[in-house]
Design goal:
Layout lengths: L1 H10 L1 E8 L2 H14 L6 E2 L6 E10 L1 H12 L4 E7 L1 E5 L4 E5 L5 H16 L12 E6 L14 E5 L1 E10 L2 E11 L1 E4 L6
Parallel strand pairs: 4-11
Antiparallel strand pairs: 1-3, 1-9, 2-7, 4-8, 5-6, 6-7, 9-10
C-alpha cells in the first residue's frame, strides 16, 4: 500500500501558467533589485525563475495537465504589452514584488480565462483578485523600504506557457512544459 501511495504522489506535478520574462529583462530586474534592496531584505528569486503567474494549478495528474494543455491550445487572443511600473511588499506572505499599476486588458482576460478553465478542471483557485506581479524576494517578513520608482520594464507578450515546479538538489526550478502563441499585433483601444 505504501508503494502505491508513493507512486501516486510522484505522478502529481506542481504546475502553473505564466508569462515568461526574456533573459535581458530578468537580468535588468536582478540589477535593479540589488541596487534597491539590501541582502537582509529577503531571499532573492534567481533570474531564471522570474515569471508572471497567470494561473496556479497546484499538484495535478498527467491526465489533468493534458486536458488543461488542450484547453490552452484553443485560446485565441491578441498579444499585449505589460509595463512593470509598480513595486510592493506583502508582509503576510513575505513577498516583495514588481507589478503593473494598470494591467492591460489582454493580461486580465488571459489570466481570467486560464483560471476559469483550471477551476472547471478541479484546480482550486484563490478567491483573491488577480494581481499581476513578478516575485523578487521571499521571506521578507520585516518592514522594508519600498523604492519610489521602478525601472519600468516593458514586456511585449506574444505567448504564454505552462510550467512545472521541480525541486532539484533542494532548490526550486521552473521548467517550461509547453508554450502557446498569442495572435500577432497588440490590440488597439478601438479593437476592444
Amino acid at each position: 500500500m505504501i508503494d502505491t501511495v508513493d507512486k501516486t504522489k510522484t505522478s502529481l506535478r506542481r504546475m502553473f501558467f505564466a508569462l515568461t520574462l526574456p533573459e535581458a529583462i530578468q537580468q535588468d530586474i536582478v540589477q535593479w533589485r540589488a541596487a534597491n534592496f539590501p541582502p537582509e531584505a529577503g531571499r532573492p528569486i534567481v533570474a531564471a525563475n522570474m515569471h508572471l503567474t497567470l494561473a496556479f494549478l497546484g499538484e495535478i495528474s498527467a491526465a489533468k495537465a493534458q486536458v488543461l494543455q488542450q484547453q490552452a491550445g484553443r485560446i485565441s487572443q491578441a498579444g499585449f504589452s505589460v509595463t512593470l511600473d509598480d513595486v510592493g511588499h506583502w508582509p503576510g506572505s513575505g513577498v516583495i514584488w514588481l507589478g503593473c499599476k494598470n494591467p492591460p486588458r489582454g493580461l486580465l482576460q488571459l489570466a481570467q480565462l486560464l483560471r476559469s478553465q483550471a477551476a472547471r478542471s478541479g484546480c482550486a483557485q484563490t478567491s483573491l483578485p488577480f494581481h499581476p506581479h513578478v516575485t523578487l524576494l521571499r521571506g521578507a517578513t520585516r518592514p522594508v523600504v519600498i523604492p519610489a520608482k521602478t525601472n519600468n520594464q516593458r514586456l511585449c507578450v506574444d505567448h504564454f506557457s505552462l510550467y512545472e515546479s521541480v525541486l532539484v538538489r533542494g532548490r526550486t526550478r521552473y521548467t517550461k512544459v509547453q508554450s502557446w502563441p498569442l495572435a500577432s499585433g497588440e490590440r488597439k483601444p478601438d479593437d476592444v
